[in-house]
Amino acid sequence: xxxxxxxxxxxxxxxxxxxxxxxxxxxxxxxxxxxxxxxxxxxxxxxxxxxxxxxxxxxxxxxxxxxxxxxxxxxxxxxxxxxxxxxxxxxxxxxxxxxxxxxxxxxxxxxxxxxxxxxxxxxxxxxxxxxxxxxxxxxxxxxxxxxxxxxxxxxxxxxxxxxxxxxxxxxxxxxxxxxxxxxxxxxxxxxxxxxxxxxxxxxxxxxxxxxxxxxxxxxxxxxxxxxxxxxxxxxxxxxxxxxxxxxxxxxxxxxxxxxxxxxxxxxxxxxxxxxxxxxxxxxxxxxxxxxx
Amino acid sequence: xxxxxxxxxxxxxxxxxxxxxxxxxxxxxxxxxxxxxxxxxxxxxxxxxxxxxxxxxxxxxxxxxxxxxxxxxxxxxxxxxxxxxxxxxxxxxxxxxxxxxxxxxxxxxxxxxxxxxxxxxxxxxxxxxxxxxxxxxxxxxxxxxxxxxxxxxxxxxxxxxxxxxxxxxxxxxxxxxxxxxxxxxxxxxxxxxxxxxxxxxxxxxxxxxxxxxxxxxxxxxxxxxxxxxxxxxxxxxxxxxxxxxxxxxxxxxxxxxx
Lengths: 292, 258
Hints:
Helices cover 67% and strands 8% of the residues of chain A.
């Protein structure tokens, strides 16, 4: 049906002057498609990153021993390992802790006067009773605290989710802007071809027949713009994916976008063409109804 | 099809005369543009199916406005118009294209679509009506031949003379053999020979049952068809000295007249 509309029939052919693509409409739709795809790609990549963060922090806990209790690390380690639900318990070496602190406070981190807590990272079995594990460790070292990594990452996840919503809002806003551009293009086309429309109305053309003429032209403009925008956006997205390892950081594995994401992105230009065609039809029908 | 093939021949004279009931009825119709004065006032008349009418009047008398009401380019600001038995006050907008397809219009300024060839301009009403292309092709070729433009089918309006454009406009108006033909000064740009041929075409259509309304200043044209009824507009008011318009003759009277 869309192809029929684009191809046009005998009635449609030649009724409007054979002009080339309407450059402003093509440009606006191209830019909007490009921006929508890039923003959507960013949103999807953020979603994937959030997934990776959640996955990486799932069932991961940290036992923190305050600086004064750092000497009791072996007892806490042994208490943790004695629980069957603890798959892995790894003490974080003090020098690694100090190296981490050095990023924030400089060379002072190496000073023995600086109290540094002792840490043990735990990997638990799924569904492990964390309260029991915590209680057992506290039995061994009362000052110990069992902290879920996911709890520490909540603010980061919140930020990622906010950015995702922002991306979605931007995509919607750009859809509205693209729609507005189509409204203006449709009205412009009607004004330009008003004499032809009046003649055709006068000899019995229906609003639907007239709308189809313009709809076809605008769909072709949208097709050209969406194709250009999509090619440019695909190039940018592929370039960014090529540099993905640099962004992956500590979370490591996985490309920022997978095949399913690619499919969603491929739907964006199609959605733009569909939106443009629908908005054009709505605008044209409304405008034509204003005449007798 | 048979009806169309014979359209360009001399009319048989016994076809279509039976359609004598009123297809257009104006009751207390008034028209004003915007907040201006009324350009048409208290029009009360009816046009019978198969009638031939000349509409005369000085410039500014309201001829074109009356024609606009007839070909549904305007709605009256007051009164009631009935067309083909449908009360236009009650007719939804979506139904107007169906009525317009039964009306052929020859505009004073031709109103050809400038980027279409003569052929495509003439073919337009048929394509709008959804006729198949083979039918369109034969009808348009025949019609263009008849108006003497068979060899100019591919020409754009800008390359045609005023008279040729008018003939294309006339061909476009009559190609569907409308029930009502409305022509605004149709012979204004053609020579006397072509004017005669056009009148012959209108008469042929009329014989086949088309109601013809021709607005003209051309007294020769009016005189050439004494059987036609004359409507005269004066300052937006219909002058009807014979009373024929207000009281259309019965079918029997009409038969007797013809």
